[in-house]
Amino acid sequence: MKRAMGRGPWAMGRTLLVAAVLVGIGSSALAQSIAPPQKTDGFQLFPRYDFHLTAEHLSHDDPRYVWDMNYGGELDLFGYRSTRLTFVANYQAGLGEEFHPFDPNQGNYTIDGVLSTRVKGFYVAGVFHHLSRHLADRPKRPPVDWNMFGGRVGAVFNRNGTDVEARVDLLGAILKTNVDYNWEMHAGLRVHHHVYGTFGLIGSATLREITTNGLGNRGTQTGGRLEAGVRLNGRGAAIELFIGIERRLDADPIDRLPKRWTVAGFRLLSR
After folding, report:
1. CA–CA separation, 217 and 106 (whole Å)
2. For residue 203, which of 175, 232, 227, 172 has the smallest C-alpha distance?
3. Full-model pTM
């Protein structure tokens, strides 16, 4: 227990090294990250809005996990030159087949506030993150939610028709209910290679590590996701078709157990 409780942000070096390896193979990505800050002329109100809608099928022998869906959006409340304040909201629905086909059993709500700016080719941000998890069509359980605050560093560049975004988030828990999280780290890289016209290839990987306070009789938890597919850009939106593999931490809000599965789905984006 002491070993688990002693891990803090400086003990993340091993995980950051793994993240660097993922970046090095060029197959990692941030599938639903907010767009990096863009320079604006002076002060602007609501300079940008984006939405996303994702539906994916999970190949797994547990009847609780068959479909996973996300939809939400992000709004820049204001922009000033290379600085902006962004509000992010997402709803995640988990569907199984325990009682009938397309049986909703989870609903998870995310609300983020991000203040970001550009610094010498990078972008940096302060991040407030809230997530609450709920069971659907099931007996009422104790609340499961947490609030975190931390920082983000990322970079976006283009090389020979390939768009690349790399990013690392490090967040510390400031208020939580029925979770044992202390620190959370996300790392990843998004790759989009333009093939011809509106058609492109995408590759992605993300890595997530959570350090705990040891109260749940478990130590540091590590999960991640690899994804590959194609992207079609339209005039007002884009669609991505993808397959992938994932190790999801705490797939159920009460059991606190990781799950592994393969995924296949689509993602509709306004950008």
Report:
1. 25
2. 227
3. 0.84
